[in-house]
TrEMBL record:
Keyword DNA damage included in the entry's annotation: no
Cellular component per GO, a single term: membrane
Protein name: Dolichol-phosphate mannosyltransferase
GO annotation terms (biological process): glycolipid biosynthetic process
Limits of the Glycosyltransferase 2-like domain: 17-179
Pfam families noted in UniProt: Glycos_transf_2
PANTHER family hit by this protein: DOLICHOL-PHOSPHATE MANNOSYLTRANSFERASE SUBUNIT 1 (PTHR43398:SF1)
Keyword check for Secreted: no
GO molecular function: dolichyl-phosphate beta-D-mannosyltransferase activity
Keywords recorded for this protein, A-Z: Glycosyltransferase, Transferase
InterPro entries assigned to the protein according to its UniProt record, in alphabetical order: DPM1-like, Glyco_trans_2-like, Nucleotide-diphossugar_trans
Family of this protein: Belongs to the glycosyltransferase 2 family.
Source species taxonomy: Bacteria, Bacillati, Actinomycetota, Actinomycetes, Kitasatosporales
Length: 256
């Protein structure tokens, strides 16, 4: 009997799919409809950063027509990490048992969510993974794949995280996992927000499972990816890796 079979996991509880949006007017309606069709019992929370293109208004219309759709209007663009932290807190306050991260642009296919939720029955955190057998990306230039694979490999080696896709953003958390991560001091904004949470989960001893996904590059709307987001990930992961190695060497606790 392996470790997973020995440990018993509680029931999952209500599911909340959190979709952060910034200028996703072309995507917000189709993605919410796809989530509602793929997992009809799940609720959706759109966390919009006051998008100038009217995404927030479209989200309000969706919420008015469907009591399982909710909207969080935030002051302005503060990054994906901040939107997720606020969304997680809202979900915890409203008694959801599972909190899912999903992009608005269709890269994370709602039709694959049932597989993530099934895996979460015997895990604390499930990561949708592009870089394990069965996982793939559709319509990415080789340069983007190189950057993403390289970023995951660098993070895995720097932080000793046994995860193949550590920057991915299609994830399902049990609420107890989020509550155990000490999210009060998460400062990361972009991709490194995802690295930060995965690293915290591994360090806290949670059972983290990767499930293969097919990631589809956005078809509509503009990317919010920037050099700044990549640079933030690089310097933070490097600083965390150096800090935790130094702490191991000197016997001091690493800074969070
Ligand atoms: N609320 C909020 N959402 C954001 C912010 N930045 C990005 N997002 C959302 O986060 C998700 C991921 O952003 P993307 O622009 O698709 O980033 P990406 O997937 O790395 O880039 P592409 O591959 O080009 O799509 C999308 O749903 C965005 O609308 C932000 O500052 N605030
Ligand atoms: Mg995207």
């Amino acid at each position: 009997m392996n470790e997973d079979e020995q440990r018993s996991f509680g029931p999952l509880g209500k599911v909340l799919v959190i979709i952060p949006t910034y200028n996703e007017a072309e995507n917000v309606v189709p993605i919410v409809k796809r989530v509602r069709a793929a997992v009809p019992e799940a609720h959706v929370l759109i966390a919009d950063d006051n998008s100038p293109d009217g995404t927030g208004k479209l989200a309000d219309e969706l919420a008015a027509a469907d009591e399982q759709v909710h909207v969080m209007h935030r002051r302005g663009k503060e990054g994906l990490g901040a939107a997720y932290l606020a969304g997680f807190q809202w979900g915890i306050d409203h008694d959801y048992g599972v909190l899912v991260e999903m992009d608005a642009d269709g890269s994370h296919q709602p039709e694959e969510l049932p597989r993530l939720l099934t895996a979460l029955k015997s895990a604390d955190l499930v990561l949708g993974s592009r870089w394990i057998p069965g996982g793939r990306v559709v319509n990415w230039p080789k340069s983007r794949e190189f950057l993403s694979r390289g970023g995951s490999t660098y993070s895995r080696l720097m932080l000793d995280v046994p995860v193949h896709d550590v920057t991915g953003g299609y994830r399902a958390f049990r609420r107890e996992t989020l509550e155990g991560l000490g999210m009060g001091d998460v400062a990361s904004a972009g991709y490194c927000f995802q690295v930060d949470l995965a690293w915290r989960a591994v360090k806290a001893g949670f059972h983290v499972v990767e499930v293969p996904i097919t990631f589809v590059e956005r078809v509509r709307g503009d990317s919010k990816m920037s050099r700044g987001i990549v640079a933030e990930a690089l310097w933070r992961v490097t600083a965390w890796g150096v800090g935790s190695r130094a702490a191991r060497f000197t016997g001091r606790r690493p800074l969070p």
